[in-house]
Amino acid sequence: MIATTSSPVQARVAQPYAELKRRVEAAGLMRKRPGYYTLMLVTNAVLFGGTLWILTLVHSWWATALIAAVLGLVSGQLGFQLHDSGHRQMFASRRLNAVIGIVTGNGLLGMSHGWWVDKHNRHHGNPNNIDLDPDIDIGVIAYSEEQAVAKRGLARWIVRHQAGLFFVLVFGLAWTMHVRSVRFIVSTRERLRWVEAAVLGLHALAFPAVLLLMVGPWRALLVIVIQKCVGGFYLASVFAPNHKGMPQIEKGGELDFLRSQVLTSRNVRSNPITDLLYGSLNYQIEHHLFPTMPRCNIRRAHKIVRDYCAEVDVPYYETSIYRSYREILSFLHEVGAPLRSAPA
After folding, report:
1. CB-hemisphere CA count at 13 Å for 156?
2. CB-hemisphere CA count at 13 Å for 32?
3. Cα–Cα distance for residue pair 238/242, rounded to 1 Å
4. What is the C-alpha separation between 104 and 181, in angstroms, rounded?
5. Are 173 and 235 a contacting pair, CB within 8 Å?
6. Residue 342 — very low, low, confident or very high, per pLDDT cuts 50/70/90?
7. How far apart are CA 92 and CA 31, in angstroms?
8. Reduced to 3 states, what is the DSSP secondary structure of residue 92?
9. CA distances from 242 to 17, 70, 266, 337 (A)
10. Mean pLDDT across the stretch 238-247?
């Protein structure tokens, strides 16, 4: 847990973020990059459509399964596209970002743009806060001993072994997102709920129908299952290193903005390949400090933020891909320990 500051201290430490923001803006890193995002949108559309077209060219089950897995990876990239539109990183127009988000999320992925934005904004405002972060209150996985001992039945057994089961469980992420999207649209009163419902319904009807016409019923079912499982696994593998196993903010506690974002986040060391595979979310610290920053600017912001954190004595954590997963699994194993030591 992170020791929290009192309100008078928060007032005194508010200035460091303002200075960091001034330096980042002076470097021009908050300016939108519409050309970059236009190219990205076209590229992802070609990849998605091209992968579907390739399905019509193969006839064996193993080739269909392989292309379906590729479609899952492309869906993961579309997930990053939905993420960027939700943060309004792409274009200055709020409406254009929303249209891209609904087409990408509801139309292509079957996931509510509104649900994603609502959940993700609450996470950004309260990262690793036990009371307020929706990303540490997830289904059968426990992120604190308190959550672990509260589990019952099958969920309790899963949490007891959650470190070993983690990479199996995350295959179900996409299916969970579908369910939560429908629940959100049914319960929300947001202005675009009927637009979202219509586009989500269109996806639910049109995507299986297109696959049915392309490859027949059984191979269509195979494609859907593999695409959803691989896409969910891919996204979960990228999201997991961001905060899991990092310090959590105690109930009722608060930190100033700079520290709440930096101390609860983990960066994965970057290179051009990780930047592509992670959708630049390997720069999790920079993303949390500047969520509307275009993805293509974040690599340049990395050095500014890291150097500034050293200047104001705020710990900045960055590690390798391998070590990030090792830390996550060690954390999950530790959380489940009370259940393993409890009487049967």
Report:
1. 13
2. 15
3. 8
4. 14
5. yes
6. low
7. 9
8. coil
9. 20, 24, 5, 23
10. 91
Q: Which residue has the tokens 């891209």?
A: 100
Residue with tokens 């939108």: 32
Residues of 23-61 as b/e, b for ≥16 C-beta within 10 angstroms? ebeeeebeebbeeebeebbeebeebbeebbeebeeeeee
Question: Which string of DSSP letters, residue by residue, matches 117-156?
Answer: HHHHHHHHHSTTBTTT-GGGS-TT--SSHHHHHH--HHHH
Amino acid (one-letter) located at 254? E
Pairing of strands 318-319, 267-268: parallel
Q: What is the DSSP string of 289-311?
A: H-TTS-GGGHHHHHHHHHHHHHH
190 — pLDDT class (breaks 50, 70, 90): confident
Report the alpha-carbon distance of residue 224 to residue 233 in Å, rounded. 14
Q: In whole angstroms, what separates CA 100 from the centre of its chain?
A: 17
How far, in Å, are 49, 86, 107, 257 from residue 289 at the CA level? 35, 16, 30, 8
Dihedral over alpha carbons 221, 223, 229, 235 (to 10 degrees): -140
pLDDT band at 118 (very low <50, low <70, confident <90, very high): very high
For residue 10, which amino acid is it? Q
Residues in the chain: 344
272-290 pLDDT, tens per residue? 899 999 999 999 999 999 9
